[in-house]
Design brief:
63% of the residues lie in helices and 17% in strands. It is built from 4 helices and 6 strands, in the order H-E-E-E-E-H-E-E-H-H. A hairpin with a 2-residue loop joins strand 5 and strand 6. Strands 1-4 form a two-stranded antiparallel ribbon. A two-stranded antiparallel ribbon has the order 2-3. A two-stranded antiparallel sheet has the order 5-6. The mean pLDDT is 77. The longest helix has 31 residues. Helix 3 crosses helix 4. It is α+β, with helices and mostly antiparallel strands and 162 residues long.
Amino acid sequence: MGSLYIGSSGLQTSQNALNTTAHNLSNVDTTGYTRQQVQQSNRAYVTLSTDPKSISNKQTGLGVTYSRVKQVRDYFLDKTYRKESGRSMFYEVSTEVMEEVESQLGELNGEAFQTTMTDFWTAIQELSCKGASLIWTGQLHNWDFIVALLSATISAFSVRFI
């Protein structure tokens, strides 16, 4: 009966391996699916006799068994995917933060922030060249406006991100 059992175990294990292959083929186009592979192992041996003079014992095997199914993955692709996924999330968060900053510093009382800052730095340059002049006193109003704008922006960010 042992020979029939050995053949039967081989057929059962082969059937399980074919089922796994069919599963792999049916999921070829599934996004994120990882191919599976059956690992087979031998069953224990039955020792018929031991002879100290011979190199090995007389043994007979009990067939094969279905030991486990492992996922066959490409380490390089997995590592690259994780790296790029992390990089993608970094840029996504950076974009969200920049959009938030742009919305806070966008149009302010009908005046663009960049125009206000350009006028302010022009006044600073003229002050360094000409000293206190009428241009500086005219820009003092913009300085108060910029300080108020930056204070409001900082308080808006601190409320949203705390």
